[in-house]
Amino acid sequence: MKALIDKNRFIGLEDCTWLYSGAEVPPHKGCLEAVTEYFNARAKGPHGRERNAEIEQACKLNLASLLNGVPSDIALLSNSSEVISMIAHSLDFDEGDNVVINDLEFPSGVLPMVLQKQIGLEVRVVRHTKWRITVDDIMSQVDERTRMVLTSHVSYLTGARLDYRALYERLKHTPTLLFLDATQSLGAIPVDMNNADFVVCSSYKWLLSTHGMGVLAVNPSRVADFKPRSVGWRSVSDMFGPNRFESFTFHEDARRFELGYPSYPTVYAANFSTGLLLEHGIDRIEKHILELGGKVIERLQACGYEVMTPTEPDQRAGNISVVFEDGEAIANHLCEHNVYVWGGDGRFRVSVHLFNDEEDIDKLFDALEIYWNRNQSIVVD
């Protein structure tokens, strides 16, 4: 299989095999050019601010297109952890109320809930069974006192994809809100913000952009009146109003979650990268990722590895995780051979995106064979 995109447009890919997109992606030259445009605009004073506003709106439009929403329902913050913490801190709850998370979540989705636990919110943790968590598993912990379910669309740990649409279908007629973390899916597979109440995503992974932005999508169908407990000058409709020392009014749309200026270099980069993803088409990108990932899984299993990620295409995305006690050691070995994967948490993770091809997979298995021959633990065919 060939890559969907010219590898030469990425900085550094000529020197390595990048199977690391679940952590971060290689920089695209178009992002570098976009950031340069930001600095050129910055040099134009007020005219540059006009250009910033244009690019920000264009970026929100692209993100809304990826999420099947509208730009007014998109907010741009500093990072996903900030977004999750803001929403968790803004929950209204009474003694005896609870939230539901699971044990395949990244710490950014766990820690803010643990903090709320310290002030009286019950945190219920759904435990996986053989690396799987189902909608039924989650719903078994939901009752009339559940204020929110927070879950990833695709697990950072296992690479498993959750049917969040089915979950939302069961939650949307209850008081329980669904907070979906799409950091490991948006840009790789379709995500629909209309099937969750909040969606969060980082900018520097599958969206092909740089660090510096957390995307928040707010579905107004159930949370139009949800107010954050943080506020800044960008959150309000009239920051210079005559009563600004006594009161303020939040914006009615997703801007109410924005405290100040976003990272405009990141916004410029993300405007380019999201446009690039839309140009190639998420359905086409998903097809490429699933087919190439399927080949990775087949070869891993043939070599005797225990793959945590489901084999079924509709139950995974771009991350493929392998049980391995010292994941860091094998990741470090592969890095020595210029093959980048992520290792830790008792596994190593191979991530495939639109710029990967079968040659990358061959290089991965060549480096794995060297590792095993060196350690004389198994023989890789």
Automatic annotation (TrEMBL):
Aminotransferase class V domain location: 44-364
Gene3D superfamilies linked: Aspartate Aminotransferase, domain 1, Type I PLP-dependent aspartate aminotransferase-like (Major domain)
Origin: domain of life: Bacteria
TM segment ranges: none
SUPFAM superfamilies according to UniProt: PLP-dependent transferases (SSF53383)
GO molecular function: transaminase activity
Keywords: Aminotransferase, Transferase
InterPro entries on file: Aminotrans_V_dom, PyrdxlP-dep_Trfase, PyrdxlP-dep_Trfase_major, PyrdxlP-dep_Trfase_small
Designated name of the protein: Aminotransferase class V-fold PLP-dependent enzyme
